[in-house]
Amino acid sequence: MSKECTFPEDIADAAMLREYIKMMVDELSFSLRKEGRLCACVSLKLRYADFETTTRQVRIPYSGSGIVTGK
Q1: Spatial separation of the C-alpha atoms in residues 17 and 2, rounded to whole Å
Q2: Which helix (DSSP H) or strand (DSSP E) does residue 62 occupy?
Q3: d(CA 14, CA 53)
Q4: CA 39, CA 42: separation in Å to the nearest integer?
Q5: Which terminus of the chain faces fewer neighbouring Cβ atoms within 10 Å, N or C?
Q6: Is 53 left (phi over 0), alpha (psi -120 to 50) or beta?
C-alpha cells in the first residue's frame, strides 16, 4: 500500500515538506488500519527539480495494534 503526491511546483521548504509527509502518513495509516493490515517497512522517495530521485527504506517492528471494524 502506498501514498504518492506530485506537486504542481517544486517545494524547497523543508518544514512544508515535513507537513505533507505527515499528512500522507496519517492517510496511509488510516487505510492500513481500515483494512486490518500491518506495516513492517517504510519507504520515502524524493524527486528533485532535475529529476534526480532518492529513495530510502527502513524496516520497523510490525505496527497496527488495533483493527478498525467500521462499527
Answers
A1: 17
A2: strand 53-63
A3: 17
A4: 8
A5: C
A6: beta
Query: Is 67:33 a contact under the CB 8 Å cutoff?
Result: yes
Whole-structure pTM value = 0.71
Where do we find the cell 501514498?
3
- Written as nine digits, the cell of 34 is 481500515
Rg over CA atoms, the chain: 14
Distance CA 13, CA 11 (A): 6
pLDDT tens readout for residues 4-54? 888 898 888 999 999 998 999 889 889 988 998 888 888 999 988 899 999
